[in-house]
Amino acid sequence: MYFCCMCVEVKNITKFYGSQKALDAVSFTIEKGAIVGFLGPNGAGKSTMMKIITGYLTASEGAVLVSGFNIATEKISAQQKIGYLPEHNPLYLEMYVREYLMFNATIHNISKEKVEAIIKKVGLTPEVHKKINQLSKGYRQRIGLAAALLHEPDVLILDEPTTGLDPNQLLEIRTLIKEVGKDKIVLFSTHIMQEVEAICDRVIVINKGQIITDKSLKELKENQEQIIEVEFDYKIEKQFIDTIPYLKSATNIHDTIWQLTFLTSNDMRAEVFDFAHDNGLKILQLNTKNKNLESLFRELTT
Ligand code: ADP
Predict the structure, then answer these.
(1) Which domain CATH number covers 231?
(2) Do 26 and 119 reside in the same domain of the chain?
(3) Are 78 and 55 in contact (CB under 8 A)?
(4) Matching SUPFAM superfamilies, A to Z (predicted)?
(5) Is residue 19 in contact with ligand 1, taking CB distance under 6 Å?
(6) How far apart are CA 186 and CA 181, in angstroms?
(7) Residues 152, 293 within the same domain
């Protein structure tokens, strides 16, 4: 046994399904208090990675440590630290909500009081007397989350927890994930960039089994390009254009029309207006064509 703080360490994980390499030397570390979005198109390897972290699949190469416990060689100790909500939330539909959670609690030797506290925490109190098959998908996800939280894990692994939810349910589950994630590690997979923007501190993008980006949301936003197309009333030289701050490149599209690319999260329209004013120019047209995180994701994964 090792001593380690609350953390998940994924070291060089490779996974073969037959001859297909589903994960290719994936490494990352997540520490306490982080909500990490695990983003990638379908088939990228997200579920495979999550099943390996939780010990439901064995890696072909590499190791995963969960709060210091090796998931392959100290499986039970490691799994005690993990709450897992699989992609197809497996519930006993004929059971009542409280009955189902009590049943899970008994397996883990968890007190009734603890179950009641979790029911309250995930907002299941009004539905607790109903059968699971009478509940909406949003409430079923809450039950899955409650079950994953029962044993007070350090780490929550949520495989596409918001897929199939309507916009209200989606907001509610996102808020809940943010709330319960405050003193844990949360790794949740999604293929929706907005979701990552809404709740994550960090995003790991995976494509074809390889990590292609691992950045804080702040870093990712700062690296976004901002494109402005502007038409002045006079033709000007590129050397003047080049004096505009944060300019990455400038292309003369036609005579007096320029396409300006900036590398900053600041709104550069005001700078362009100031530039025109300082140089005695008038702006006849200005359009922004910003690349948002969604288009960045498409670029990264296609
Ligand atoms: P994601 O969760 O990102 O959609 P998966 O981890 O489910 O991706 O799948 C990654 C790749 O591994 C895909 O090409 C998928 O077809 C393949 N795969 C997943 N599970 C199995 C399996 N049990 N047997 C064979 N191939 C699999």
Answers:
(1) 3.30.2350.10
(2) yes
(3) yes
(4) P-loop containing nucleoside triphosphate hydrolases
(5) no
(6) 6
(7) no
Give residue 47 CA to ligand 1 midpoint distance, Å. Answer: 7
Give distance in angstroms: CA of 137 to centre of ligand 1.
24
Cβ of 104 closer than 6 Å to ligand 1, yes or no, is no
Residue 239, ligand 1, Cβ within 6 A: no
Would you give per-residue pLDDT tens digits along the chain (302 residues)? 445 588 999 999 999 999 999 999 999 999 988 999 999 988 999 999 999 999 999 999 999 999 999 999 999 999 999 999 988 888 888 899 999 999 999 988 899 999 999 898 888 898 899 999 999 888 898 999 999 999 989 999 999 888 877 888 888 888 889 888 888 999 999 888 888 888 899 999 999 999 999 999 888 877 777 889 999 999 999 998 999 988 999 999 999 999 999 887 678 899 999 999 999 999 999 998 766 677 777 777 77
Same domain flag for 48 and 141: yes
Q: What spacing in Å lies between the alpha carbon of 42 and ligand 1's midpoint?
A: 9
Q: Residue of the nearest CA to atom 25 in ligand 1?
A: 17
Q: Are 136 and 124 in contact (CB under 8 A)?
A: no
Domain interval for residue 240:
223-301
Distance 3 CA to ligand 1 centre (A): 33
Q: Residue 209 CA: which ligand 1 atom is closest?
A: 10
Cβ-contact 23, 49 below 8 angstroms: yes
